[in-house]
């Protein structure tokens, strides 16, 4: 058995996450479905990658000075990644987050030493939206930089330079499709661009939750949202700078119920405790796999992102009363 690689810097722990064959989704799709285990990052989510690249980019441009402050508006996971990176490099963090996000994310940010600013949930057009609030705070804070994950393309660069090459190498250069949901758009755009650089024929699919506008944008050219979702950190109503030029070949819309079904099955049958965004991604991967199989590609390989750990949602997704309050099915073992 090969011993794990040793690292000389804690920030080197970000990335190089395992890729695992998901048995239940593979059986459902009729082809191989692989999950990139981003919950294995130090901050337990895919957002660690964007956090590291954004901070390194700010340092390289000279906008982030020693002892400075990083300010960001986030659904939580990017803030957690930024707080860890900032701690390792001697910076302070101020994180603005909608008060509707999970209690576990709030508690984690406080535990990491970040200054947490909670604001009411609001549409992007509202000046009180968490992104706009974080920008203003950065402008008002001496020595601060605004991470701006939605429109800072250092975000998608992280996935062009790390996530995509890792997937390509882990699958031995044989991959037919990739899909995930979009929040900032950095992951799907970056992995899509990175994989297309290896093989233009890799099919890149957007997996969109209800309540987001991108499905209709890529399907018919119109930013139009339908329905709603309780998933945190995904769903977008505009074309961010990270999404500009994203090589989206096809798109799927996935309901919370379908995503929750895969969350339940992956925990019950495969021992993976994941968040709803991961369940939605897996449902999209199954849909993409079935599409490829229907075209005669029975040996197809599809990869997706297992975004974060389910332990971040114990008070919501894994809480029977919370699920009932949202009109969602309760996992049988919680009843």
Automatic annotation (TrEMBL):
Cross-referenced InterPro entries: Cys_Synth/Cystath_Beta-Synth (IPR050214), P-phosphate_BS (IPR001216), TrpB-like_PALP (IPR001926), TrpB-like_PALP_sf (IPR036052)
Required cofactor names: pyridoxal 5'-phosphate
Signal peptide from the UniProt entry: none
Coiled coil (residue ranges): none
Enzyme class: transferase
EC number assigned by the record: 2.5.1.47
Domain Tryptophan synthase beta chain-like PALP: 12-308
Keywords: Pyridoxal phosphate, Transferase
Keyword Transferase attached: yes
One Pfam match: PALP
GO MF: cysteine synthase activity
Organism superkingdom: Bacteria
Annotated PANTHER family: CYSTATHIONINE BETA-SYNTHASE
Entry protein name: Cysteine synthase A
The organism's taxonomic lineage, starting at the top: Bacteria, Pseudomonadati, Pseudomonadota, Alphaproteobacteria, Sphingomonadales
């Amino acid at each position: 058995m090969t011993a794990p690689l040793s690292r000389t810097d804690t920030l080197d722990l970000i990335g190089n996450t395992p890729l695992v064959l998901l048995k239940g989704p593979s059986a459902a799709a009729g082809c191989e479905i692989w999950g990139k285990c981003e919950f294995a990052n130090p901050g337990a989510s895919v957002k660690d990658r964007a956090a590291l690249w954004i901070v390194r980019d700010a340092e390289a441009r000279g906008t982030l000075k020693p002892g400075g402050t990083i300010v960001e508006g986030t659904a939580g996971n990017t803030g957690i990644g930024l707080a860890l990176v900032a701690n390792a490099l001697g910076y302070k963090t101020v994180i603005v987050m909608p008060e509707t996000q999970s209690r576990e994310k709030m508690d984690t940010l406080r535990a990491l030493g970040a200054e947490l600013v909670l604001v009411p949930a609001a549409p992007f057009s509202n000046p009180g939206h968490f992104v706009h609030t974080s920008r203003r705070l950065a402008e008002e804070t001496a020595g601060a930089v605004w991470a701006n994950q939605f429109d800072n393309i250092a975000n998608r660069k992280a996935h062009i330079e790390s996530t995509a090459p890792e997937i390509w190498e882990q699958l031995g250069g044989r991959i037919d499709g990739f899909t995930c949901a979009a929040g900032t758009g950095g992951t799907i755009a970056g992995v899509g661009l990175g994989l297309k650089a290896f093989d233009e024929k890799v099919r890149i699919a957007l997996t969109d939750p209800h309540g987001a506008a991108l499905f209709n944008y890529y399907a018919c050219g119109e930013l139009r949202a339908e329905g709603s979702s309780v998933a945190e950190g995904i769903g977008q109503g505009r074309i961010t700078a990270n999404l500009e030029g994203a090589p989206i070949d096809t798109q799927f819309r996935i309901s919370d119920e379908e995503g929750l079904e895969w969350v339940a099955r992956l925990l019950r049958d495969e021992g993976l405790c994941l968040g709803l965004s991961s369940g939605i991604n897996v449902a999209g991967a199954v849909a993409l796999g079935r599409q490829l199989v229907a075209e005669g590609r029975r040996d197809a390989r599809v990869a997706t992102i297992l975004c974060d750990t389910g332990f971040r949602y114990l008070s919501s997704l894994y809480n029977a009363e919370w699920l009932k309050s949202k009109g969602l099915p309760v996992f049988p073992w919680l009843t």
